Amino acid sequence: MTDGSPATARPPIVPPAALGDPARLRALADTGLDAVPDEAFDRFARLVSDLLDVPVALVSLVSADRQFFPGAVGLPEPWSERRQTPLSHSFCQHVVDIQVPMVLPDARLYPRVRDNLAIDDLGVVAYAGMPLTDLSGRVLGSLCAIDNKPRAWTAAQLRTLADLAAACSSELRLRIALDSAQEAGRRIVQAHERLELLAGVSETLAGTLDVNIALRRLAATMVPLLADWCLLTLIGPTGLPREVVSVHRDPARAADVDRFGELLRTGLSPESMVRAVLRTGQPRLGSVASLADVTRGTTHPEMATIADRLGIASYLSVPVQGAGGTVLGAITLVNGAQRQQFDDRDLLTAVDIGRRAGQAVGNSSMYGEQRHVAEVLQHSMLPQLPIVTELELAARYQPAADRVEVGGDWYDAFAQPDGDVIVAIGDVAGHDIEAAATMGQLRNLVRGNAFGRPDTVGSLMSNLDGAIRGLRLPIAATATLVRIGPQRGGVHEVTWSNAGHPPALVVRAGGAVESLEATPEPLLGLARPSSRTSQSTNLATGDTLLLYTDGLIERRDRSIDEGLAELAGRLADTDTLPLDELCDLLLASIRHREDDTALLAVRAR
After folding, report:
1. Which PANTHER family does this chain map to (predicted)?
2. Is the pLDDT of residue 194 over 90?
3. In the listed set 346, 372, 398, which residue is the last one of a domain according to the structure?
C-alpha cells in the first residue's frame, strides 16, 4: 500500500460522461450524504463483508470528480479516514457508466480497469459492484465487495449482493424523499415569509407619503429578511441616481454601506448592473457574484474594497416602476457567502416589491406637487394683518398633517375708517377645493358687509346670514366676529358675536385666562333666519385676545370641553410671552394634526 501516489506514470483516466448528468448530480446532492460515516450505510457495508467474506466492502457514491463512502469496512489508511478517493482510484464510476453490475474476478486482466490506481494503492484485485439507484433509475453509485486476491464470485454471493444493493437503494431513496420533504417545508416557510414581507411592504409604503421615509422603512423591511444588505436608488431627470438609501443587517457596517451608497450615486460605469436595470427596466439576477462584478460596474475603486467588507456572493436588482412602466429607480439586494444564493423566487418577490415601491413613489410625488399647490392656494387666501398703533396682531395657519386638500379654516382683520378694528375667524365645512372657494366667498362677504358700517357685530352677523340666504350660497360655517374699539381710559371696548364657533379666550395681564362664553347660537348659512346677539368685554394694556379654530382643541380621544380646559391651562401665565412666540407655542403643542388650525391673537399695548 502507498499513500496514493503512483509509482510509475500511467495514462490519464477520462471520467465517463454519465457522471456529469445534472439530474443525477441533483439526486446525489438530495441524499444529503458526504464523505463522513453514516451508521445505516456502514451497516450495509458490514453485512456485505460478513455475508460475502470479503476484507473490504463499500457503499460508494460517485460525483462528477470523486467517489465518497458513507458506508465502509476494511479500507486501509489514509482512505479509511478520508472516506473518499479521486476518480483515478474508482471502479464504481464504471458501474454508473454501464448502469449494470460489474463483476471482475481479477481486475488486472480487464482493459477497462487494469490501469486504475486502486489496484496498487488500495489492493483492489477482485471486485463485484451492484448499481445503487434513485426512484428514476439513475445510478448514483455502487454497493461493492472487494478482495485483495483473485476470486471466483459465486451466483449465491452475487444474489446476496444484489439484494443488499436493492435495500441500500431504498435507503438512498428515503434520504432523497426526506430531503425533498424538508425542502418543501423550507419553501413553504419561505413562501409564508415572502407573503408576510409583501404585506409588510404594502403597510410600510402606505404609512407615509414622504418618499424618503418610505424608502428607509422599505429598506429596513427587506433587511435582513430577504437580504444581507440592500440599495434603493431613485433617478433624477438625467436617468442617473440622484438619491440612494442603503442598509446593512449589521449595524457595525452602517458607515461602510452608507459610503457605498454615496459612491454609487456618481460612480456607475457603463457595465454596471444597476445602470442596466435603470436603462432597460429589466431585472437582473446574479446567483453567483464576486468583487470582479463590482469592479466592472464602477468607476470608483473604493467600492470594491467596501463591498469586500460588506460581503458579496449573490445579488439581484429590479426596477422601481411607476405608471406606464416609467423607471423611477432600482432595488438592489445583496447576500454574503454565509447566506443562500438568490434564485428565481427571490427575483419574483423583489420585482413585486419594486412594483409596489413604484406606486408609492409615484403617489408621493403627486402628493408633494398637489400639496404644494394647495398650500400656495390656501396661503394666498389669508390676509395681511393691519398695523394698528394701540394693538399688536399675530396669526397662524397650519394645515392638517399628510393631507393634500385645502381647507375651510380662515381668519381676517382690518381697520375701520372710524378707528375700530374688525377681527374674525371661521371654519367652513369640508376639506377640499370647494371648501376653500366657499371660505374665500365668506371672508369677502364679511369684509363687504362690515367695512365702514357702525352696526353692532350681532347685526352684522344677521346681515351676513341674510346675504348667504339671498345669494343662495351653499355655505355652512362657524364664525366669530369681533369689533375692537379705540383705547379710551386705558381700555379697549370689545364686542363679539359667535355663530357656533369655539369661544374666544382672553389672557389677562397677570396671567389669568377667561373664556368668552355666551348662549350658543346656530351656524351661519342655515335655512331659517336667526337673531344674532352681541356680547361685550374689554381689553386693558397687556391683555391678549385669542381666536382659533377647532383644530387647536379637538381630538378623537377627548371631548371639546377637555380640549378647551387644556388650552386654557396652556395659556395661563403667558401674558408676558411675545405674541409670535405664543402663536408658535400653541401650534407646537398639537401632537397629532387631525384638522387644519387657524389662530389670531390680538394684544392691547
Report:
1. STAGE II SPORULATION PROTEIN E (PTHR43156:SF2), STAGE II SPORULATION PROTEIN E-RELATED (PTHR43156)
2. no
3. 372
